[in-house]
Amino acid sequence: MRGALENPKELDRVLSHELTHALIRSLASRGVPAWLNEGLATALETGDLQWAERQVQRQSKPVPLRALQSGFGRLTGDQAQLAYATSALAARRLIEEAGGFAIANLLRDLGAGVDFETAFLHRIQRPFSEFLAPHF
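The structure assignment produced for this chain is given below.
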């Protein structure tokens, strides 16, 4: 929240991000990959992901989502920025292709202990490996 209290636009962004995390946690208190959790929160904090597209283009390719299963705390600043950008773009694609209802059900399944690959196939209607190719 550094600086957000002095900047209403930044405060709105931060609150949207954190509210999304709270909603995700209410649907699934466990089992949510970091890329999905951070990706949804980042994608839904603003409508503009041009910064993420530029970030990935600068690096020539996104971080593989399978490498972003656990938290981003171990990443350097530049690596974390690329991880957030990649995650946001993947989440936006998932929202556009599957919709919010399918994602909410995916999160509920994960919270109920269903493994990610099974829940993804059931709720998104295709294997996760197919979603990854060729973008992530």
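Interim note for the steering committee: Residues 13 and 31 are 25 Å apart (CA to CA). DSSP finds seven helices and no strands in the chain.
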